[in-house]
Amino acid sequence: MNDGRPKVLIIGGGFGGLFCARRFGKLDVDVTLLDRAACHVFQPLLYQCATGTLSIGQISRSLREELADHHNVTTLLGEAVRLDPTARQVTARRPDETTFTLEYDYLVIAAGMRQSYFGREEFAAWAPGMKTLDDALSIRRRVFAAFEIAETLPPGPERDGWLTFVVSGGGPTGVELAGQIRELATRALANEFHEIEPEEARVLLFDGGDRVLKSFAPALAGRAADILKKLGVEMHFGVHVTDVRRDGVTVTRKGGGPSEDYAARTVLWTAGVEAVPFARHAAEVLGATTDRSGRVAVNPDLSVPGHPEVFVIGDLAGRDGLPGVAENAMQGGLHAAACIRRDLSAQPRKDFRYRDLGSAAYISRGHALLQAGPVKFTGLLGWLSWGFIHIAFLTGVRNRFSTVTTWMASIARANRSDRTFILGGSGHPEEPYTWESPVHQGHHSTRDGSERVPDSAAG
After folding, report:
1. Of all helices (H) and strands (E), which one includes residue 237?
2. Which residues are catalytic?
3. In Å, how far are 148, 185, 256, 343, 419 from 191, measured between CA atoms?
């Protein structure tokens, strides 16, 4: 410890980091919360933002605003890039590529996971994941622009490609996205176009398992599959998406056999997650072991072996099969804060015990699944339960009331009130008019996974 107040540094402003920071209110410590976006995002509702039901402000809130009454908590914008456990320092990078250093007495790593492409990072150019606000806005742009572009094309294969949507991964996020796109096509957009019939849009869901929602009871998963079929989602199991390109995907069966190509201009990736780069770096310099996805092996109290001053919580904590859900992160953040508080009062730490409060998945209006121990709800009751649970965890009273109002309007009119998307409108070369993600402009993937320079930039 230094001579002043203990310094607690929290990396990540998600559920784990936010709940941890809140716990230090009125305690004689200095807390710094470092986040690469300086806002808290309610990730379970990202897909509702992506498909036009909710706005950014309804699922996110500035961390400064959220923690304004916690006078011993400082919020900083930056991305953690390097850890020096000997000096107890973390180096962070600002958006302009300059860096600054933060010292700590206690470090809580709550940086979360990112989308995994299983070593094929080039897929990200054409298949955005669903982990950040940027991802949600990218998906919104791609989904709504696909219908708009199809409206300008004559009937034929090119138009069909724009009206075909591929979802890779049959977990909760994949199921939610697939259901929402079909619902969007058959309800909200059904009567708004003249040249196309949005109801004819195809949604293809691919998964390597034998059913959707493998973390749910088989009966619930079967019910979800039935609802998806009624919506018109085409489900393919026992297959992997082995190539993603600008105009489609290649799918290969797990047991072997010929590959199949599908023409699609919109591909969404929800097939896996992996640790963010800083978490992998931290594990290496701390001498901690990790699993294949980069989760860090931790002690029963969530501290890193050999480093009682460092905690790893949420998705990154690799212990006892802890699930990658918001509730695990919340409980982990509260537990890490409790351990630090007990240290400061010279009391022994307690082991972390995760309390499973259940799982939920939204499929379409009036249909959701809720599983909490022996309690299992589907249909309208599951949908209402799902809504109340998510509203309860939204940060800020304003967000809750705003979200409830929007959902009530959606229930009554089956519309989507936040469908605005940005294609780039300044006319400058640095901001081209395109449906592609800005980070990937100029890097077009070829069939072999390499990258080529677009014709406009060659020579």
Report:
1. strand 233-237
2. 176
3. 13, 10, 43, 62, 16
Q: Bridge partners of 311?
A: 108, 303
Helix count (H) and strand count (E) of the chain?
A: 12, 27
What is the CB-side half-sphere exposure of residue 396 using CA atoms within 13 A? 20
Could you tell me how far CA 43 lies from the centroid of its own chain? 5
Whole-model pTM: value is 0.89
Two tokens at 404? 């409830």
The dihedral region occupied by 411, where left means phi > 0, alpha psi between -120 and 50, and beta the remainder, is alpha
Pairing of strands 444-445, 375-377: unpaired
**Torsion angles phi and psi, residue 70, rounded to 5:** -100, 90
Level-2 CATH architecture, domain 7-115+274-345: 3-Layer(bba) Sandwich (3.50)
The verdict on domain 121-271 having CATH code 3.30.230.10 is no
**Rama region for 373: left / alpha / beta (φ>0; ψ in -120 to 50; rest):** left
CB-count exposure of residue 287 (10 Å: 0-12, 13-18, 19+): exposed
Domain ranges of the chain: 7-115+274-345, 121-271, 359-412
Full pLDDT tens readout for the chain, 459 residues: 445 899 999 999 999 999 999 999 889 999 999 999 999 999 988 999 999 988 888 889 999 999 999 999 999 999 999 999 999 999 999 999 999 999 999 999 999 999 999 999 999 999 999 999 999 999 999 999 999 999 999 999 999 999 999 999 999 999 999 999 999 999 989 999 999 999 999 999 999 999 999 989 999 999 999 999 999 999 999 999 999 999 999 999 998 889 999 999 999 999 999 999 999 999 999 999 999 999 999 999 999 999 999 999 999 999 988 998 999 999 999 999 999 999 999 999 999 999 988 888 888 887 889 898 888 988 888 877 877 777 777 676 567 777 777 766 665 555 677 888 888 766 677 778 888 865 444 444 333 333 333 333 322
**Contact indicator for 234, 202 with CB cutoff of 8 Å:** yes
